[in-house]
What we know:
Order of helices and strands: HHHHHHHHHHHHH
Oligomer: single chain
Shape: globular
Structural class: mainly alpha
Strand content: under 5%
Amino acid sequence: MGKKIQTDWPEITSRDWQIDIPWLIVSLVMLLALYMGHACGWLIILKRFNYPVPFLPGIYVWCKSLLARYIPGNVMMVVGRVVMIEPYGVPKRISLTSVAYEQALLLSSAATVIAVALPFWPKLQNFSTWIWLVLVVPPMAVILLHPTVLNRIGNYLLRKVKREAIEEFLPFRDIVAIFFYYCFFWIVSGMGLFAMAQTVTFVSWSSFPIFIASTPLAWLTSVLFFISPSGLGVREGVYAFTLDFAFPDSNGDPSLAIASAFAILTRFWQTLVEIAVVAVVMALVKIRHIKIKAATAEEMKDDEDIHGRDNPTI
Length: 314
């Protein structure tokens, strides 16, 4: 990507770039909604396991665990979340199961959104008339999350890799509801990516379905290349490859270099928003705890002033 950008740098700099503040705000709102939506999705799963966690501490744990995604393997993200949520009464077995469900639902919903939007991709429209068969992915994704299937196939695979089997299963109606919940937020993430593109240059609305598919595809690919910290480089490559048609050069041909420049810019923007979200949530938790402690100390002082004269032993 860097080599391509270096080669076509004059083409990139000569493009009519812009900074559209309203579209930038839309992109920010969509990204914030995405982070909060995914965080709340995990809390919903915990609640359906009958282990509800207070909203702000739960959001705090989920957001703080995001920082561990930049450690290759993503193992520390899971470990950190399990350790941080335990003081709120969630056993490790349940928290691990909830994370497993979260990842399975994210994977299946991402594959579904990709399958629905993929036939609209210009590179595949003339590839084969069989491309529409990808629409079998959504029902198959839901079926594979049925408790019976998870119990037989999922636990069989877990035993093969010498991992603890899943003992608690969510009701199928809850799985379906959370599945569509995550599908909605994958669409939100695509809207945020499209808004970011509109922030810096004009992009045709006809390419909107591909922007919707690009975000779950980039995330899904980064999961497969788990050694990459937070999908660094992998997501940018997917964005550049799938969105090159939306960034034509001066001759009207798809430009991988311009799309690569946009992908790197998007990574920078998403990282800033992610850090800001974590910082704000951690600050809110700290301020809230400080206020509680201050109020408690003040109440004790008032109580001592009121009752101290009647009861010297206080």
